[in-house]
Amino acid sequence: MAALDQLETKYFPAIPTVVPHSGNTEVLPHVDGEEYFAAIYSAIEATEGPDDRIYIASWLFERQTRLILGPKRLDQLLVAKADLKVDVRIIVWTGRLVLHTQDLDPDFSETEWWISRTAEALDLFGDVVGANIANVRGLRTVTTLPEIAPPLAGRVLMDWSGDFGSRHQKYTVVYRRSTGDLRAFVGGMDFAEKNVNPFLHPTNNSPHDVGVECRGEAGRSVWNDFKTRWEEVRSLPGARFRFGPIVEHFNPTTDASLHVPPVPSPGTAIVTPVVSSSGVRIVRSYDRIKDSMLWGDDLPWETLPPEGLQEILAVFRKALSAATRYVYIEDQGLNSFEGFTSHILLWPLVAAAITKGVKVIGVTSGEDDDNRVLVPSIWTVFLDHVSPVVRPNFVMYRVDRMEVHSKVVLIDDEFLSIGSANFWDRSMRFQDTELTAVAVDTGSLVKDLRVRLWADHLRVDPSDASVRAELEDLDKSLAIFRAAWGTGVSFPTPNSKLQLIGPVA
User: Fold this and answer.
1) Measured at the alpha carbon of residue 57, what is the angle toward residues 51 and 63, in degrees to the nearest 5?
2) Winning range, highest mean pLDDT, from 145-149, 199-203, 441-445
3) DSSP string of 389-433?
4) For 421-482, where are the E strands, in sequence order?
């Protein structure tokens, strides 16, 4: 196995805006929501006072979500912590372009939007934004004691900015000052009840997903992104929306009591040292501008480079070119309709890997969240990039009757990527705002995750020693996906949910 610095050189480009975290962050992947949200609950529950932090950025936020089985809902948990003076802050996407935009109201100042939402105006994500607005309005009013003002009233912001993309980041930062414990939870899982699902999926009623917990220094980079997001949202012009009979500002603008201090710098936190075998980078995608304003002027970023950020794309370009044995891509973006996004940035890199003999495996949804069976059109996109001679180095599977919502890339049991960024162009450049954790590891981190994911789709128990040993062995387990790729595993898989798409293996 290569040394850590060699792996970092192999897979990570030097990016001025990205902070390297080498051997100082423990990386804990969590397969499926039950495990992931239980870890978040444990971290939040441990916070205790004014020096502690709970920062959440979310694309979809359902305040009544129960992270674990029990009586306490997410909003109740967060309000209880705010009552203890824990610094609780939340940013929720409420993209104004998803709402129906009317002319400016003459009673408003010229720096304010007049935004309304009607049933006729709903588009692809209108229901998400509508639910988010309702949940934020509710969260701002929750209190445990009637005589005390709602503690989150000025600490939940709606991010209505964005051109023709969304603020798609999904992460939670939790810091406990007394122990120096800093944890960042990164992935594609929104705070929604349907996502609290168990490993191995006893039913098909919940999506499959993956998140990652970073303990230690890499949490500073996620915290720093939250500081960026908070400052950018606070600097937005005043904007109002109409939601049924309600007309109000997205964010508090006049009541001085709702003005909270700036998010502190993560450099001020004392973090307990962590020694690990992993090198970690927190990478992001941001558009070139914050918003295109109704009156014709683009709204620039206050704290980001004017050209935006394409850190995720830069890492994928280098990492995919470094592959020698296999690339495993598990992503909902492999099963998209082509009008939604282009696929010109990443698939040529995949094709180049296939051409040099790397085995590339794609796993995606067999069903969407409306229980419709999906036939990935990405297959035809792929065919445009490779010659028939090397196509046997590529396979794509869907998971039968299951929504695969994860965004995971594994390479050669050395590199992993887990985050909000889908494997499509809109997550790479100038549309969706994303945050992803990428890591290399000199131990078994990537292999262990690969084994769990393949066991999950095969519906076999990875704790069975014989099953685990054979899944760990690439000479055997690659044959799961194409018989010619390996010698094959000996254990039976009668409950496998993997269904091949395209040519017969």
Assistant:
1) 90
2) 441-445
3) TTGGGEEEEEETT--B--EEEEETTTEEEEES--SSGGGTSSSSB
4) 434-441
For the chain, domains (ranges, CATH) are: 24-275 (3.30.870.10), 309-501 (3.30.870.10)
For residue 478, give the 3-state DSSP assignment: helix
pLDDT(374) > 60: no
- AA identity, residue 463: S
Lowest-confidence range among 93-97, 367-371, 500-504? 367-371
| pLDDT tens readout for residues 1-52 | 689 999 999 999 999 999 999 999 999 999 999 999 999 999 999 999 999 9
Structure tokens at 82: 């705010």
pLDDT (0 to 100) of residue 53: 98
443-481 pLDDT tens trace? 999 999 999 999 999 999 999 999 999 999 999 999 999
Please say if the pLDDT value at position 504 is more than 70. Answer: no
Task: Annotate 63-99 with b (16+ C-beta within 10 A) or e (fewer).
Answer: bebbbeeeeebbbebbbbbbeeebbbbbbbbbbbbbb
Q: How far is Cα 190 from Cα 403, in angstroms, rounded to an integer?
A: 14
Amino acid identity, position 439: A
Rg (CA), the chain: 23
Q: How far does the chain reach from its first CA to its final CA, in angstroms?
A: 31
pLDDT beyond 90 at 301: yes
Taking the C-alpha atoms of residue 89 and residue 227, their distance in angstroms, rounded to an integer, is: 10
User: Angle CA(118)–CA(122)–CA(125) in degrees, nearest 5?
Assistant: 135
Say what the pLDDT of residue 39 is: 97
The answer to whether the beta carbons of residues 376 and 364 sit under 8 Å apart is: yes
Burial label for 305, CB within 10 Å (0-12, 13-18, 19+), is exposed
Work out the burial of residue 270: count CB atoms within 10 Å of its CB; fewer than 13 is exposed, 13-18 middle, 19 or more buried: exposed
> What's the farthest any 2 CA atoms get from each other in the chain?
73
Q: Are 468 and 453 in contact (CB under 8 A)?
A: no
From the CB of residue 58, how many other CB atoms can be counted at a distance below 10 Å? Answer: 23
Q: What is the per-residue pLDDT for 202?
A: 77
Q: Tell me, rounded to whole angstroms, the distance of Cα 22 from its chain centroid.
A: 22
Listed residue (439, 406, 41) closest to 188, CA to CA? 406
The two three-digit tokens of residue 232, written as one number: 């950018």
Pairing between β-strand 394-399 and β-strand 407-411 as defined by DSSP bridges: unpaired
Alpha carbon of 131 to those of 88, 137, 432: distances in Å?
21, 10, 19
